[in-house]
Amino acid sequence: MLLAFLLALVPPDDPRAPQRPAEPDPEAVPPGVPFQEPPEPDVPEGPGVSDPDLAPGAPPAPSERPPARRRVLPDDRMDHEEDPDAPFDTAALPPDHPAYDRIQTRGERPPTAGPRPVTVLTAVALLAAGLLVAYALVRPDPVESSVPDLLTLVAAHTGTARLDVQTSDLDEAEAFIIGEFGWPIRVPVFPDARLEGVGVAALSEGVEVPVLRYRTDDAGAPIVVYAYDYAFLDAASDRLRLAPPVYARLADDPPVDVRRVGDQYLVLWRRRAAIYTAVTDDDPGALAEYLRRR
């Protein structure tokens, strides 16, 4: 009963009232018009273009992303927001930014500087100075080269040696040397040779030294011995000289040196401050070995 009462209160629809047109169905095709597929939308191709067929919720293409935000620093510089897909713009960095320096110098090779002219001139000057010093050390001293060599004079004088006293007595020969030169030089003794005499040898003008002559037992070549000391060599340094290598060899132990001048052999040895030079034409091996053992 109550329901019938409520229905009686609702007025019926007025057929004269304007009706709201129905929404057209997009899928419906009017009669007589053939059905056509709707055209596909034009989608530009290339990187950075979004695909309309992406699944809902798929991330948009990089080109559709909003631009990276920048925040203003107190000094009015823009701070690049970290974006893994956005290119790093070095132009946005100030020149004094550390990252700017690293990026700008990456892969650059510093220029190779060529030799500086001043360095080349300095090297040439040092080389020239070294050559001059070496030449000065190697070249002979003009003063020394003009002074005759003692061994050359001794070898040239041996054939004309003159004996002032014929004697085989060693004490008599030593007394003669002391009387003529004031040198207390001992007369040497050889096992296979005997003393024949002593004399004075004039090696050059104003330069004289004692000379002794020995005769071997087997009638071989004579042995002529010249004697002097270091004081004599120093006093006569402007008239004759003994080569530095000979001085050095006589400072060794044993102080014996063997040399050859022309066709003659020279055996030098030292006993304290006295220096002896024996000249012979025979093989000096036995004599030098005897002197080395003393």
Q: Share of helix among residues?
A: 25-40%
Characterize the biggest β-sheet.
7 strands, antiparallel
In DSSP terms, counting alpha (H) and pi (I) runs of 4 or more, how many helices? 9
Order of helices and strands: HEEHHHHEHEEEHHEEEH
Radius of gyration: 62 Å
Structural class: alpha+beta
Work out the strand percent.
15-25%
Q: Please report the distance between the alpha carbons of the first and last residues.
A: 169 Å
* Sheet with most strands: strand arrangement: 3-4-5-6-9-8-7
Q: Roughly what is the average pLDDT, rounded to an integer?
A: 74
- Sequence stretches where pLDDT stays below 50 over 5 or more residues: 48-52, 71-82, 99-107
Shape descriptor reads elongated
DSSP strand count: 9
What report would you give on this structure?
This protein is α+β, with helices and mostly antiparallel strands. Helices cover 29% and strands 20% of the residues. It contains nine helices and nine strands. The protein has helices at 2-9, 98-105, 117-138, 142-145, 150-157, 170-181, 230-235, 244-250, 285-293, and strands at 70-72, 78-80, 165-166, 193-204, 207-216, 223-229, 256-261, 264-271, 274-280. The strands form two sheets. The protein has a seven-stranded antiparallel sheet, with helices on both faces. It has a two-stranded antiparallel ribbon with strand order 1-2. A hairpin with a 5-residue loop joins strand 1 (70-72) and strand 2. It is elongated. The chain starts with a helix and ends with a helix. The model is unreliable at 48-52, 71-82 and 99-107 (pLDDT under 50).
